[in-house]
Design goal:
The complex is a heterodimer of chains A (about 800) and B (about 160). Chain A is built from 19 helices and 34 strands. Chain A has about 800 residues and is of the alpha+beta class. In chain A, the strands form 9 sheets. Chain A has a 7-stranded mixed beta sheet, with helices on both faces. A 7-stranded mixed beta sheet of chain A has the order 32-8-13-14-15-7-34. Chain A has a 4-stranded mixed beta sheet with strand order 18-26-27-30, with helices on both faces. In chain A, helix 10 runs parallel beside helix 18 and helix 15 packs across helix 16. With about 160 residues, chain B is α+β, with helices and mostly antiparallel strands. Helices cover about 35% and strands about 15% of the residues of chain B. Chain B contains 5 helices and 5 strands, in the order ββαβββαααα. In chain B, helix 2 packs across helix 5. The longest helix of chain B is centred in the C-terminal third of the chain and has 20 residues. Chain B is globular, with a radius of gyration of 16 Å. The chains are: A alpha+beta (about 800), B alpha+beta (about 160). At the A-B interface, helix 1 and helix 17 of A face helix 2, helix 3, helix 4 and helix 5 of B.
Chain lengths: ~800, ~160
């Protein structure tokens, strides 16, 4: 750990919103009750794929208590979507439904029950169309088209990229492995169901309170979908009761609530049921994968070729980005000199998939790390030692032109190996298992990962800041921070308070954070892609430093010293060796106001422009990458196939832990979520319907299935991050899933090449093993689909990171002040 | 059909005129303005709506107010007394056991009932008591730590008094 030279940074402080949360005062969207508020419900399709012949709302309208009924005819004919390239959603379906759960009509009534009853009175005449419920179905039936756009019949996106000569790399290899894997889709399962309250006031201005991770994008989409000037729309993101990516799209229920408010002249609330949340989805894509990798005798990778097939569901959502993410992040972890990547996202008549914690990367991570485990076994190498050798070099480029900065993965590996007793357990369990009379066999498994700290490019192309902060000091000595960031439980409000307090030498309690209100706060793109701590953090530091500079000039004049002699700490500003004369912060603000007028300063941040100069190079670049290494220890019962997790050790390169308590919380939550995906969670369908759309049937880990999680934080002080910090919210999920699969292999000698790894799959693999067949359960076939001719680009592997000559929105030359550190410091 | 229900909530007598089938969860939130109690499924599956009825954890989404007349109902708003946080609330805030905070009220109440019955539970006992309360943010680690810390502090308080 780095020696802590800070006052606030690095301390395990409570979150600034912790007190409101433990007394039940935090107001989530569904906790808002406005006078005269009406309640809305959506009528959703029970058909997976059908043409809408007609909708008759007469009986619903006639029901007492009903205030308004809307169909697509009552809304502007506009399609929307989160990505500019996939504008394929309708707030209410116009002439076709593409999945069970598609909204076709909506009712506002005096209460929810009346709205529900009215929905049942709406008569929709459907003409059923064939439902395509898998990648194989959709490719086998090009005559049935879910959408009219894309890269082929039912193919949303087809990408192919090649960096260097992969074929030669395989020819020169000592070992070439080809493996096939499948990762089932799963839901975010946030505890809070999506909710929104819309109020379209008589002055023509619309306010929407919504449980969203992306108020800025919702703002843009409302303007489009309601054909109303964005300037007259205000979106407020309420504290989000769990997001994990499930609340990053703009949704039909948000748009419809606004329209119903306009029509009724009342505020309108809409709250989804748990079943609706499962159909709203945007969760983990089911992905089939084929991966071919060449290795030297020592375990070095000579080259890698990855193919992925994503089951996208019925709409685009973030799918184009998801498709790229299945390929572009793997090379960030290890030395992969040449790389080829082909991927296709297929439309199916299921709820749309999108971003879930780790967005598109847990699936190929599972494939790569399981394959590395198999390769190490074949090469007679220890799986951890083999990976330790091939960790990527810091401050270089990957084959696919991504720039990596600091890499703490080696230290993460060393620390989890030591803490877990890996070497001893690896040998001991392997020796003891066959002799054990009990059916319970023990195993340890290993895996690593990397993840981005914020996407380097915005959802829509622009040159504006990705994050903005306004810092305003007032004469009380309090500082107000306005920022578009949305606290989804990750602690963004707290991080803004800590960073501001650190720079100004005050306490977090002195900082009032007002987040996520499009009328008040500068834009932040949203709480996704692990971008908030870094991007809002850098903007907050810049704003606070500007505020501090202004106050310093005034205090310097008063004390008759140079501003550069001043320090801010302990709620005072003064000269360190003449601290008796230091001015209290509140007094310093008064001096500042007297000199400059009102003290309010903006901070802006945009990531360095580092996108590879090729089409598709915009997905993957990030200011810096976090790294994780994981050891899992478990017991498997070979009679029942049940897995009992005992311990998870996880080393995470956090850059710098701004608050170690919060970082640990993010890591523990990520590990937990990985466990659920590895062993039980699955969004699956039967007869076109979700098989388990409830919290009882959709299995997720309780306290009893969650093992002890041992978190080890590694600090690398990254030059790109605020005070050196990287992300923690997503990356630590990634290695857990393959580490579990690898530990099961260590315990039983069977390979389960698909998740979730349920007891039936383990028992089936054991049956194969006993029968002398390959002890593997996993996908047996791959889709027939022709990938594009790859775009061939030279590999940038091993090239030094570019020096960043100029950074957007930094007016002053870079100094070694916190938050504006230069590379190679 | 509406019925008048007389409830004792957090030590205060409260009355409401509600449809007979309206759940305790809905009445607490919508009629009594106690929105600290959350809903996650309305089917008794997630534990988020847990309140205490005569000290016992009850899923308020499955309970009818008429059944709880004459009982002592405690919601998260009633945990702190005279502005003094309950040791569980204090520990949850200090240790980061509330991330998004949505499951927190239900977990606090379940843990309150546990500590009333077993003042110094083992970690396994805490896990078993909280097995019906889902949390998607924390991985439960900080929650278990916080319950243990609160138990320790309450034990010390007890020893002092």
């Amino acid at each position: 750990m780095i020696k802590n030279e800070f006052a606030i940074i690095g301390r395990p402080l409570p979150k600034v919103d912790a007190w409101a949360k433990v007394v039940g005062e935090t107001k989530y969207a569904d906790d808002l009750f406005l006078p005269r508020m009406a309640y809305a419900k959506l009528l959703r399709s029970a058909h997976a794929h059908a043409r809408i012949r007609s909708i008759d709302t007469a009986r619903a309208r006639a029901l007492p208590g009903v205030l308004a009924v809307v169909t697509a005819a009552d809304l502007p004919r506009v399609k929307f979507g989160i990505l500019p390239v996939s504008q394929d959603e309708e707030a209410l379906c116009v002439d076709k439904v593409r999945m069970v759960g598609d909204a076709v009509a909506a009712v506002a009534a005096i209460d929810e029950e009346t709205a529900e009853r009215a929905c049942r009175l709406i008569e929709v005449d459907y003409e059923p169309l064939p439902a395509l419920m898998s990648i194989f179905d959709s490719l086998a039936h090009p005559e049935v088209r879910i959408h009219e756009y894309g890269d082929g019949p039912n193919v949303h996106k087809n990408v192919a990229l090649q960096f260097g000569d992969v074929d030669s790399a395989f020819e020169g290899a000592h070992l070439v492995r080809e493996d096939v894997f499948f990762f089932e889709g799963n839901n975010h399962l946030p505890m809070e169901q999506h909710a929104a309250v819309a109020h379209w006031a008589q002055d023509g201005k619309l306010t929407l309170w919504s449980s969203t991770q992306t108020p800025h994008y919702v703002h843009r989409v409302l303007a489009k979908a309601l054909d109303t000037p964005a300037a007259h729309i205000r979106v407020i993101a309420t504290p989000v009761g769990g997001g994990f990516g499930g609340k990053t799209d703009p949704f039909s229920h948000e748009i419809v609530a606004c329209q119903l408010s306009k029509l009724t002249g009342r505020p309108v609330k809409i709250a989804l049921t748990r079943e609706e949340v499962f159909y709203t989805h945007r969760g983990r894509h089911p992905v089939l994968m084929w991966i071919k990798t060449g290795f030297t005798k020592q375990g070095d990778i000579t080259g890698c070729h990855l193919r992925t097939w994503l089951d996208g569901g019925a709409y685009g959502s973030y799918g184009v980005a998801s498709t790229f993410y299945t390929g572009v992040i793997n090379p960030v972890t290890y030395k992969i000199p040449v790389y080829r990547f082909e991927a296709a996202r297929i439309f199916t008549n299921k709820p749309p998939c999108g971003p879930k914690r780790g967005h598109g990367t847990p699936q190929p991570r599972f494939a790569l790390e399981c394959q590395l485990d198999k390769a190490s076994e074949q090469l007679g190498l220890d799986p951890a030692d083999m990976r330790r050798r091939i960790v990527a070099e810091p401050f270089t480029k990957t084959a696919n032109h991504l720039t990596v900065t600091t890499i703490g993965l080696g230290e993460c590996i060393d620390k989890v190996i030591e803490a877990s007793g890996w070497r001893d357990k690896r040998a001991r369990y392997a020796a003891a298992n066959p002799a054990r009379r009990s059916p319970k066999k023990r195993g340890v498994g290993f895996a690593c990962s990397a993840y981005l700290t914020g996407a380097g490019t915005a959802i829509y192309w622009n040159d504006m800041p990705h994050s903005g902060v306004l810092a305003r000091a007032d004469r009380s000595g309090g500082v107000t921070v306005l920022c578009g960031a949305t606290d989804i439980g990750q602690g963004s409000d707290s991080i803004l308070a800590y960073l501001t307090a650190e720079v100004l030498g005050i306490e977090p309690k002195d900082v009032h954070v007002h987040p996520a209100d499009t009328s008040l706060t500068p834009v932040d793109l949203g709480s996704y892609s692990s971008r908030v701590t870094l991007m809002c953090g850098m903007a907050a530091i810049q704003a606070a430093e500007r505020l501090r500079d202004a106050i310093f000039t005034a205090v310097a004049k008063k004390l008759e010293v140079s501003p550069s002699a001043l320090v801010a700490r302990e709620r005072k500003i003064g000269v360190a060796d003449d601290w008796d004369k230091a001015v209290p912060f509140a007094r310093a603000v008064e001096l500042g106001e007297a000199m400059h007028g009102i003290l309010a300063f903006p901070g802006s941040y945009a990531p360095p422009k580092r996108a590879g100069k090729y089409k598709g190079g915009g997905v993957g670049p990030s200011p810096c990458y976090s790294y994780s290494a994981c050891v899992v220890e478990l017991t498997v019962d070979e009679e029942t196939g049940t897995v009992d997790l005992e311990n998870v050790w996880i080393g995470h390169d956090i850059g710098r832990a701004l608050n170690p308590l919060l970082v640990e919380g993010q890591v523990e939550g990520s590990v937990y979520m990985g466990i659920g995906e590895a062993l039980m969670e699955e969004q699956v369908f039967r007869k076109n319907l979700h098989k388990n759309p409830s919290m009882l049937d959709y299995k997720s880990p309780t306290t009893l299935e969650t093992p002890e999680i041992h978190t080890i934080l590694v600090e690398t002080d990254d030059p790109e991050g605020p005070f050196g910090a990287k992300e923690a919210g997503q990356g630590p999920l990634l290695p857990v899933i393959p580490a579990i699969a690898n530990a099961i292999h260590h315990a039983l000698g069977v390979r389960i090449d698909e998740v979730p790894i349920t007891p039936d799959k383990i028992l089936k693999a054991l049956d194969f093993k006993r029968a002398g067949k390959p002890a593997r359960v996993g996908p047996e076939r791959l889709p027939l689909l022709t990938f594009k001719e790859p775009l061939v680009v030279e590999s940038a592997f091993g090239k030094p990171a570019d020096a960043i000559a100029s950074r957007p929105f930094t007016t002053k030359p870079e100094t070694n002040k916190p938050g504006s550190q230069t590379a190679g410091r | 059909m509406k019925v008048r229900v007389a409830l004792n909530v957090n030590g205060e007598p409260r009355e409401a005129l509600v449809p007979a089938h309206k759940t305790l969860l809905e009445v607490l939130r919508e009629d009594l303005g106690l929105t600290g109690t959350k809903h996650g499924c309305e089917l008794g599956e997630c534990g988020t709506c847990t309140v205490l009825v005569d000290g016992e954890p009850v899923l308020s989404c499955l309970a009818l107010p008429v059944e709880t007349q004459g009982c002592r109902i405690t919601t998260v708003e009633g945990l702190a007394e005279s502005g003094q946080l309950h040791p569980l609330q204090q520990a949850f805030a200090e240790l980061g056991a509330a991330q998004c905070g949505y499951c927190t009220p239900g977990i606090l109440l379940t843990a309150t009932a546990l500590l009333a019955e077993r003042p110094s539970p083992t970690r396994q006992e805490v896990k078993e008591a909280l097995a019906g309360n889902l949390c998607r943010c924390t991985g439960y680690t900080k929650i278990l730590d916080a319950v243990e810390l609160a138990a320790l502090r309450m034990g010390r308080q007890e020893a002092r008094s």
